[in-house]
Amino acid sequence: MRKALVFDFHSLPLRPSSYAATLGSTVVIAPHPDDESLGCGGLIALLRQAAVPVQVVLISDGTMSHPNSRKFPPAARQALREAELRQALLELGVETSPVCLGLPDSKVPREGQARFTEAATQLQELFATVKPATILCPWRRDPHPDHRATSELVRAALTGLPVPPRLLEYVVWAWERAAPTDLPQPGEVSGWRLDVGSVLEQKQRAIAAHRSQLAPGVIDDDPTGFLLSPEMLAHFARPFEAYLEVM
After folding, report:
1. Most buried one in 97, 170, 187, 222, CB count within 10 A?
2. pLDDT tens digits along 78-103
3. How far apart are alpha carbons 131 and 59 in whole angstroms?
4. Cα–Cα distances in Å, from 97 out to 89, 135, 153, 168, 197?
5. Distance from chain centroid for Cα 56
6. Sheet of strand 26-30, all strands in order from the earlier edge strand to the far edge
7. CB 4: neighbour CB atoms within 10 A?
8. What is the pTM of this model?
């Protein structure tokens, strides 16, 4: 029996760093603080080097990384993670403050659930005001429920625009947790990698700004809390990023 081909992000064609500037003004949608730096931090840095406007939108409140902390109750965790996001964006050259929707971490609504329509309308109004040429959001089957919900919100918001922007989907958890059905299927997408070698140090500084998510962390009273593993971080130390466009 012939073995089915598995999608390989590493085999995507490599585009030069100069390609970033052709994307025009860009809105980056991040489900959680750190997704922007992990998934597309290099592209953000290249856009800002080229003086291209970038607006970041944070979907969730980010509070569930350490849900059992008493030193950092939910409001304090949210404030900490949003402060880390602002520092990361400064490292990438983004001085515009992020827009924070504050949806519940780990429970970003899917289509048909409460608050979905409200959140999609908020995004649609922002897109209509900012008028970006390009929108970045997570790959629609990235294996994290908030990432999938975020993709649904973005696509719902785009359906109401007379001229939708270009939609590029970046990869976070699909690098190491994707089941075969999570990956792009034959004929579903066109994809490419972007050379971010020239801004890799900037990207690493932006990732490091998310101190609560990196060992040893700053929230020390929740031993079950989430930290990015060295194996996961290694995917984002490469001099390229992967982007997908559904055909």
Report:
1. 170
2. 999 999 999 999 999 999 999 999 99
3. 19
4. 9, 17, 21, 22, 26
5. 9
6. 14-15, 189-195, 240-246, 166-170, 134-138, 26-30, 54-60, 99-103
7. 8
8. 0.96
